[in-house]
Amino acid sequence: MNIHLDFRSDIPLTDQLVAQIQHLLAAGELKPNDQLPTVRALALELRINFNTVARAYRTLDEAGIISTQQGRGTFILEQPPPETSQRLKHEALQALARRYLGEAARLGFGPSEAEQALTEVQTENSPSS
Q: How far apart are CA 61 and CA 73, in angstroms?
């Protein structure tokens, strides 16, 4: 799984992990019935405490995104309804925005400067008329 945690972020690792799994699902990189790594395996891979992964999995389970089956593993549930999928995408986008603003603040920039930088990049990347 392609998960990157920011250990310097003010966002708790559990929340980062939940947001990243939601993003992978919203982006189609994780699909219904895909099996997730075990709590211990993912904790070792990410070099974090297994309780952090267990809390993230519990949050995702309570949200109806995954299901842990004793002795079988943890799986992505069937495709959520469109409104849930849209909510997941929106939550992933908000998490991305929080990470961006947090990193900008760490570098000494305020929200208006971060917004200006986004606008500049968007202008640079827009197709020519």
A: 12
